[in-house]
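An example makes the point: we let one protein speak, the chain in one-letter code, the fold tokenised, and here it is:
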Amino acid sequence: MDGTVTAVSSNGTYAFSKPNRDSITLLAGLGVEGDVHAGATVKHRSRVAQDPTRPNLRQVHLIHGELFADLHRAGFDVTPGDLGENITTRGIHLLDLPVGTLLHIGDEAVVEVTGLRNPCLQIDAFRPGLLKQVVGRNDAGELVRRAGIMGIVRLGGEVRPGSQIRAELPTGPHRPLDRV
């Protein structure tokens, strides 16, 4: 259940992609310092339009870097930060984690997993046909979202490429991830 950070990204303005950085600072209860999606209440435009007072369960977006290799094999050139994630990982099966998992990242930061990213049509505006690569159906006909997970910052700290990630599973029955 351990992994490594391979890239970190943030953007102070609304844009689909986020430029890579040397490091990012996670702020408890808010998200990524200086990122447009940081805040205690929702910041994603569609969520703000529905109810701007709702808690922000999407403070940090993490994507497993292995997804980029899958996309490359399907003919899509996608690199860290392109899909708007803040943290790109390797070696940890993010999509298999239950809700409430604590991700200890680097020396101090802790992110609590809240759910799956719900990919939207902006992905196809970025690369036509890409949405079908990150959302599909399994053999049982169930919807499968592969565009990463979302979380909230429990403890702040600096995160940089090379930072180690350790997953601490919640106690009790585990709830599978669903879109947030």
Remarks:
- The two ends are 23 Å apart (CA to CA).
- The chain has one domain: 2-168.
- The mean pLDDT is 96.
